[in-house]
Amino acid sequence: MFLAEGDHTPSPVFPIWQELVVGTIAFGVLCFVLMKYVFPQMEKTFKARVDAIEGGIERAERAQAEANALLDQYKAQLAEARTEAARIRDEARADAEGIRADIQAQAQQERDRIVAAGREALAAERQSIINELRGEIGTLAVDLAGKIVGESLEDEARRKGTVDRFLSDLAGAR
Amino acid sequence: MSLQLAPLADSSVPWPPSVEEFFPPGLVGNWVTKFSIMVWIAVAVIIVFFLVTQRNPKIVPNKAQWLGESVYSFVRNGIAKEVIGHEGPRFAPYLTSLFVFICFINIFAVIPGFQISPSSHIAFPAVLALISFGLYWYQGIKKHGLGHYIKTSVLLPAPWWVQPILLPIEFAQILIIRPLTLAVRLFANLFAGHLILLVFTLGGFMLWNAGNIALAAVGVISWGMAIVMTLFEAGVALLQAYVFVLLTASYVQTSLADEH
């Protein structure tokens, strides 16, 4: 090996052997430290960074999916509630209809009953009045005729049923 | 290297700049020199920076952590993955160490107070090139076995009568040319860069001291050029680091490739 030594100026194209040694050791130390302690650490950092970013994306995606599921759920619930409401409304409407019909029928019955009762009472009243009048008219007529004729026709009339016959004729003529 | 030109004028300025400028006297022989100190400073600064900024890494990084990660990502995704392919990230730690180391020792070329890069001593590029050489040989042999690795690297799909010419060239390629060019490219760029800075800076002094007003003006222009070339050198320093790492990655890729 051509080694530069001594007092004379060394040739620049031949290495000084001490510098070869120094260069090897210095660069060796540098490589050892950087390759053992620094760059693996950096690779870890890079990986952690990628994980953090990917993890963030994943988390966001998960949150998005969750939100979508919730939205679907709410929509379903809302639709269900709407159907329920419509059903309740329909039922209420049907109920109201039924109640009204019932009330109407009841009122009709009541009216008929009242009217019938009234009619009956009226008929009974009339009959009793007729019967009463019939008696009184007979008496009055006989009394009146007795006064006109001047004698009592009471017994005769009773005997012969004149008044009754008259009244029957009257009724028959009508 | 005895291209000693006649001095323009007598002065204390060492002119012309010579190879001597690259070999200042060592503090303790050749073991502790300006160059070895710069290398140790580079190593210390890099290690401290990365250990401190990566001590407590966060998912959302602060500026310093981000800076360190950016350098690693740049080499990992921009060079290792891009050149080597899916096996690239395996080599990213080494390639990044290499890149950062070369960047730092190169940038000494333009840092005031140092203004010369350890890379302008061929020993340091040579060490790095030898490691790259070892790396692509090791990876090739590990993947294919020695015989098959040499076969896939050396034997090109060409007509048989071309092979006598091709085989030695290809063999020299993986054995000598690749590591040599790696080392020499880095060394020569930084060596020449320093020489250019010396020429413009010292030349400026020479012209300024020439006692001629017109030459003094040219001297000022020369200093201006020294500043421009310093910026240029900064670019070259980073570019050469990139090229070195890119080529290392490319050699590893060819070692791992199934076909030549």
Strand % of chain A is: under 5%
Total beta strands of chain A: 0
Tell me the span between the first and last alpha carbons of chain A. 173 Å
Number of self-contained structural domains of chain A: 1
Instruction: Output the structural class of chain B.
Output: mainly alpha
Distance between the termini of chain B: 40 Å
Largest sheet of chain B: none
Radius of gyration of chain B, in angstroms, nearest whole number: 22 Å
**SSE string of chain B, helices as H and strands as E:** HHHHHHH
Number of helices in the DSSP assignment of chain A: 3
Radius of gyration of chain A: 66 Å
Give the averaged pLDDT of chain B, no decimals: 88
Number of strands of chain B: 0
* Bulk shape of chain A: rod-shaped
Main sheet specs of chain A: none
How do the helices and strands line up, and which of them pair or pack?
The complex is a heterodimer of chains A (174) and B (260).
Chain A: H1 17-149, H2 154-160, H3 162-173
Chain B: H1 34-53, H2 63-84, H3 88-107, H4 123-144, H5 146-154, H6 163-208, H7 213-256
Helix pairs in contact in B: 1-3, 2-3, 2-7, 3-7, 4-5, 4-6, 4-7, 6-7
Structure summary:
The complex is a heterodimer of chains A (174) and B (260). With 174 residues, chain A is mainly alpha-helical.
